[in-house]
Amino acid sequence: TLPTVAHSFERLEAVELYPYKRLFEQGLASVMAAHLNVPALDASGLPSSLSPAVVTAFLKDSLGFDGLVFTDALNMKGVSARYAPGEVDLKALLAGNDVLLFSEDVKLAKQKIKTAVKDSTLSMDQLNRSVLKILMAKSWMGLEYKTLVPTQQLKEELNPVSSELVNKKIFDEAVTVLLNKETVLPIRDLAKKKMAVVVAGTEAGTGFAHTLGNYTRVDTYTFTPGEENKLLNKLSQYDYVICGLYTSNVNPWKSYKINAGIKRFVKRLSLQNKLILTLFASPYALRDFPEATLANGLMVAYQNHPDAESAAAQIVFGALGANGVLPVTASDLFVEGFGLQTQAINRLGYSIPEEVGLDHNKLLKIDLIAEEAIRQRATPGCQVLVARQGKVVYHKAFGHHTYAKKRSVTTDDLYDIASITKIAATVPMLMKLVDEGRLDLNKPLGYYLPELKGSNKEELMIRDVLAHQARLKPWIPFYLETLEKGRRSAKYYASQRNFDFSNVVASRLYSNRYAQDTIFKRIIDSKLLPEKAYKYSDLGYYLFMRIIERIEGKPLEVLVQEHFYDPLGAQNLMYNPLLGVPADQIVPTENDQAFRGQQLHGYVHDQGAALMGGIAGHAGLFTNANDLAKLMQMYLQEGHYGGIQFFDSVTVNEFTRCQFCDDDNRRGIGFDKPQLSGPGPTCGCVSPLSFGHSGFTGTLAWTDPDEQVVYIFLSNRVHPDAENRKLLTLSTRTKIQEVIYNALIHEDETIDRRLMGLVQP
Predict the structure, then answer these.
(1) End-to-end CA distance of the chain, in Å?
(2) In angstroms, rounded to a whole number, what is the distance separating the alpha carbons of residues 41 and 111?
(3) Residue 230: is its pLDDT beyond 50?
């Protein structure tokens, strides 16, 4: 059809034509003449693209435009329904256009134009002027040299990081919240909440569900026509259902309307669940979709696009705040300019390196280091995560679960994090008790454990024990005492679980229910080292576990789940993971023939923790990089995460500062710190404020408040043999950390990059 623009000339001058005037002043190279009926410019009803009054008299003469003038497509009904092929081409040229697009019959058009020149209907001067402008444009582009475009890295050159970043920021700012009943957005309370995501519609993407799953455990379902009742029955058990509705945006002619079956499903779903609905489609889809207003939360993300999916998911969980407003009127309720704001609540976001001042090309060196470690058989596989300024910008999995290469590592898989358990379980509980005034770091162990009275442990100060300078032995091989001639003693073990043998040590292996007390007695009776100096020891954490459980009156695994992991949305941070996730999601560790006689898969590697049923203060936790990063980000944010203040900032800063640097002891309270000199746990390029911990199984979690960096490395370097030390000799973990710091874009470099359009200010 031929649309009509009925505005007055004054209105056109003030609004529609204003940008053109400004752009003409700046040297705009070309303009397309649309097929429109604009009475204020030509009262004859002639399409503007074929009107000499519009193209020549107004555009060229009045506005002074001297660039190339293109027609809109000449096969469109606005002109082709009125004029035959060839004739419409000639009319377009006579109107003053220089370039004719989508001619339906080029041969006939050329004949018509030649005839018009011969009979002087079309002047040769006009034709020459158009040809000259086209040749000048070609020359300006250097086309006379026939330079071929190099195809190497063409994709990268056509899609620079600067464009990727701009596109991402557009979606971050565009996603619009239209309903937020009872402030359901962002979802704050993650503890013991069951959540599901349903994807429905045409060409549904996977990014929305995947990103939602980064924040907590979210089960994914797909809407299938005819299966509504079955799906509704499954969803009835969930506290929240987050629904992503998709339409195709392959081209503008694809329908944006929501299927009638999906509308009925949304209506029924809203009656039984707390529903958050996200529309990955044109807002016009809301015009005949009243069922959408039944949702508790409603968002429009505008496009079926990965960046839209990521932004919408981050808004649901508060990593981003919503700032978008509708650019059009979608319905009587949702008018142009409407949009509700939501607040960000300091949860980890997901972005690209350049948004947080990291160079993605330099970060790619991490891939080479990880792959080299696997090639050298330092570890079968690993996970690496890098976050900065609260955004995860690098998160990859490498290699396989074992050297048999039957299962590739994914970012969802769980690793035994060994001694990182200290800062992921025991230390946060101690911080909580200190925060609440129920534990004094400057009191001796005997104050909280009367059974230590008369022992050499009674007067050991808690602060000294946590800083590893209390003269405790580094380690006691408790399991050796349970072996007789290298075989497990029936006094300590059974192959079936019962009242007397209740602690799960490994598959079909259970320890005596009094193993914990026996271990505790061995620690009490152990000798102290002769001198007070820094010496890393696990023993204090057996005692801290007992202190915590005695003060709180609950088991350690229950306490950390209630107080930290559930509120953080870190449901994959757990003891005894076989009780919570499928075995194929857990990465095996050592093939332990010396003690347990089996390949350890889902059972803690540390022997002492194994004797205690897999739960100890120094070891026992399993997790993936993403969930461990949440805990480390909470520390980085001085105890705040997801709208919750877990600790006072003063407490966090006290625990993470170097306690006895003057005594050549780098340690914080429980946390490890950068080496003071020589080799150590870091690359030596981190700030003195940084802190973290490593694990015997080949793991590292490190946080730097100065650079706002969180770095996680998880591996099973102890597979199949704990004596494999190649990860240490290759310095894999510290080399990766060095790459991260080398990838930092410093302020002077950032200014240069802004000038080149590589990053946004």
Answers:
(1) 44
(2) 31
(3) yes
**Predicted confidence (pLDDT) at residue 755 exceeds the cutoff of 50:** no
The residue written with tokens 């009943």 in the block is 181
Three-class secondary structure assignment of 641-688: ECCEECCCHHHHHHHHCCCEHHHCECCCCCCECCCCCCCCCCCCCCCC
Q: How far is CA 284 from CA 268, 327, 460, in A?
A: 22, 11, 70
Rounded Cα distance between 678 and 687, Å, is: 15
Opening angle at CA 566, ends 740 and 689, nearest 5: 35
Instruction: Please compute the mean of the pLDDT values over residues 28-47 and round it to a whole number.
Output: 95
Size of the chain, expressed as the number of residues it contains: 761
Both structure tokens of 217: 């455990």
DSSP single-letter state for residue 358? B
Give the C-alpha distances (Å, rounded to integers) separating 736 from 241, 358, 697: 39, 14, 17
The alpha carbon torsion through 528, 532, 536, 539 (nearest 10 deg) reads 30
Q: Tokens 């946060």 identify what position?
A: 428
Name which of 423, 424, 418 is nearest 714 in CA terms.
418
Look at residues 723, 735, 619, 730 and name the one whose alpha carbon lies nearest to residue 684.
735
Tens digits of residue pLDDT in 729-745: 999 999 999 999 999 98
- Is residue 70 a contact partner of residue 32, using CB atoms and an 8 Å limit? yes
φ, ψ for residue 622, nearest 5 deg = -120, 150
Which of 382, 370, 379, 368 lies closest to 727, judged by CA?
Answer: 379
Per-residue pLDDT at 361 exceeds 50:
yes
- List, in order, residues 6 or more apart from 120 with CB less than 8 Å away: none
Q: Around 541, how many Cα atoms within 13 Å sit in the side-chain half-sphere?
A: 33
3-state secondary structure of 187: coil
Handedness of CA 556, 557, 562, 568 (dihedral sign): positive
Q: Of 343, 293, 338, 350, whose CA–CA distance to 187 is shortest?
A: 343
Instruction: Take residue 125 and report the two structure tokens written for it.
Output: 């001067």
The mean of the pLDDT values for the chain is 95
Using an 8 Å Cβ cutoff, are 360 and 161 in contact? yes
Which two three-digit tokens encode residue 539? 């023993």
Checking DSSP bridges between strand 274-280 and strand 240-246, what pairing results, if any?
parallel
DSSP SS3 for 168: helix
Q: What is the pLDDT of residue 748?
A: 54
Phi, psi of 568 (to 5 degrees): -75, -15
Cβ–Cβ under 8 Å, residues 524 and 457: yes
Q: Residues 6 or more apart from 322 whose CB is under 8 A from it?
A: 175, 176, 177, 185, 299, 315, 339, 340, 341, 342
Task: Identify residue 317 by its one-letter amino acid code.
Answer: F
Please tell me the distance from the alpha carbon of residue 534 to that of residue 177, in angstroms, as a whole number: 55
pTM of the model: 0.87
**pLDDT tens digits for range 190-203:** 998 999 999 999 98
For 693, the enclosing helix (H) or strand (E) is strand 691-695
* Paired sense of beta strands 391-399 and 349-350, if any: parallel
Query: 377-380 — which CB contacts under 8 Å span 24+ positions?
Result: 377/403, 377/724, 377/726, 378/715, 378/717, 378/724, 378/726, 378/727, 378/730, 378/732, 379/698, 379/715, 379/716, 379/717, 379/719, 379/726, 379/727, 379/732, 380/405, 380/409, 380/716, 380/719
